[in-house]
From TrEMBL:
InterPro entries referenced in this protein's UniProt entry, alphabetically: WD40/YVTN_repeat-like_dom_sf, WD40_repeat_dom_sf, WD40_rpt, WDR89
Region (Disordered): 345-416
UniProt-recorded name of the protein: Unnamed protein product
Organism per entry: Candida boidinii
Keywords per UniProt: Repeat, WD repeat
Biased composition (Acidic residues): 360-370
Comp. bias regions, Basic residues: 392-416
Keyword Cell division tagged: no
Gene3D superfamilies: YVTN repeat-like/Quinoprotein amine dehydrogenase
């Protein structure tokens, strides 16, 4: 099936991310630090601009509520924007303890998290309470030793947070635990991370900068010593007949492109069965020319694409076989093995995460034997080889390490 282009918006610089707000339209983030809003009614050819949303390239943008709010991050800060009053500026500006260049951001459960570029020997992960002041309520300083390129909150468990980095690791944190080392619930050793996310309450995908894909099991808190083997798809460029992968969208599709062919393709993705329909792709002839497509958003039979040619294109796909939902992780989508909804009805989206500023009184009452038993159980879930590998890699010279990372595949995702 072939998509038909029906409209195009010309922007002032590279289009890096697209977000859909159902009350407003398509928000796009730019490499010049600006934000654009394109209404769903493209026949009016109207685009609203926030020219200086950030002082430099917006490295990542994410939906907060899918209706009015988005979060953005850049070298200067993490910001929250309300498009009911976007002309008034950001409703919140968040900064870290140091002058962090934020590369990744996510928001859920009333919290925002931002991941930074490598500074010195470590990259930092900050977390803020959206209802409190602008000071971080939690900071992880030693868990990654290179740029943090991905952050995702668990869709239903407010106490789990995922981060991915160019150091090759994806970390899952237990936010109920104060100590950073002990809070590291699981470590996945995969490769330089372009994208990672939860596919369901218990499954995680990882996509590397060299276009390799894996799907992994989220460790539980049982006494099982053996971690299930991941599903490895290998290098997608050969099996998908493409030159790069835009992203994997748990809401129902995957996107890949070919610069030499001036082409974009969408595949239907069943995240529950973890299968891609490679036999019935939707092709976008011409796409964004020989430039990279950075982001894709589906809205019924209409698809929006943004790319490094500084345009947002609108495509029509009558009778599309792409099945997707605007917000994938809802109560009707996330079910356990018994078919019941795997989320508490009394959990509000803005409910507080269990972030404990001090040691809980109950912990003080536990005797030493109980504490040791809990710690022993927790360490069973972490791959010993992965953790030892992390310790070994952290001792290397960061100057030598940065010089060795000269991959074109990685560079195209970092315009800053």
């Amino acid at each position: 099936m072939e998509a038909q282009q029906v409209h195009s918006y010309t922007c002032r610089d590279w289009v890096l991310d697209l977000c859909q707000l159902k009350n407003h339209g398509i928000v796009s983030s730019m490499s010049d630090g600006g934000l654009n809003l394109s209404p769903f009614d493209f026949t009016k050819n109207t685009i609203y601009r926030i020219p200086n949303a950030h002082s430099n390239s917006i490295n990542r943008m994410r939906n907060i509520d899918y209706e009015n709010l988005v979060a953005t991050c850049a070298r200067d800060s993490v910001k929250v924007w309300d498009f009911r009053c976007y002309n008034s500026g950001a409703v919140s500006t968040l900064t870290g303890d140091s002058n962090s260049n934020f590369l990744s951001v996510d928001s859920r459960h009333g919290y925002i998290a931002g991941g930074s570029e490598l500074q010195g020997v470590d990259a930092e992960l900050h977390m803020w309470d959206m209802r409190a002041n602008n000071k971080p309520v939690r900071v992880f300083k030693d868990s990654h030793h290179d740029d943090i390129t991905e952050i995702r909150f668990h869709p239903t468990n407010k106490d789990l947070l995922l981060s991915g980095s160019t150091d090759g690791y994806v970390n899952i944190y237990d936010l109920t635990i104060d100590e950073e080392d002990d809070a590291l619930h699981q470590v996945i050793n995969f490769g330089s991370i372009h994208s990672a996310n939860f596919l369901s309450t218990k499954r995680i995908y990882t996509l590397s900068h060299i276009e390799t894909l894996g799907i992994h099991e989220l460790n539980d808190k049982s006494d099982e010593l053996t971690e299930p083997k991941p599903i490895e798809f290998g290098d997608l460029r050969s099996s998908w007949d493409c030159e790069y992968v835009v992203d994997i969208y748990p809401s129902g599709y995957a996107a890949c492109g070919s610069n030499s062919k001036n082409e974009l393709k969408l595949f239907n993705f069943n995240s529950q069965e973890e299968k891609f329909d490679l036999n019935n792709p939707i092709t976008f002839k011409g796409a964004h020319g020989d430039e990279v497509v950075r982001s894709v958003v589906c809205n019924g039979d209409v698809v929006y694409t943004g790319g490094e040619d500084s345009t947002i294109k609108v495509w029509n796909i009558p009778g599309s076989n792409i099945e997707y939902k605007l917000e994938f992780f809802t109560q009707n989508d996330i079910k356990d093995e018994d078919g019941d909804i795997d989320i508490r009805d009394d959990v509000d989206e803005a409910e507080a995460i269990s972030v404990k500023p001090t040691t809980d009184a109950d912990d003080e009452d536990e005797d030493e034997e109980e504490k040791n038993e809990k710690k022993e159980k927790k360490h069973k879930h972490k791959s010993k080889s992965d953790k030892e590998d992390k310790k070994h890699k952290s001792k290397k010279s960061k100057d030598k390490k940065s010089k060795s990372k000269k991959s074109k595949d990685k560079k195209r995702f970092k315009p800053y």
